[in-house]
Amino acid sequence: MKRQFILFFLFVFPFALQADRYTDMAAKHLEWV
Fold it and tell me: Tens digit of pLDDT for each residue in 1-33?
């Protein structure tokens, strides 16, 4: 069960980082406008 959770975390983590980067870029874009 724990191994499944770790695999799930490793699978989701990059997407979370990417989403965070996109929201950061969107915030910067809104600041520019």
Answer: 789 999 998 999 988 889 988 889 888 888 766
Tell me if residue 33 falls in helix, strand or coil.
coil
d(C-alpha 33, C-alpha 23), whole Å: 15
Indicate whether this model's pTM tops 0.85: no
Give the closest residue to 28 by CA, choosing from 13, 20, 6: 20
- The rounded distance, in Å, linking the Cα atoms of 6 and 12 is 10
Q: If you write DSSP's letter for every residue of 6-26 in order, what string do you get?
A: HHHHHHHHHHHHHHHHHHHHH
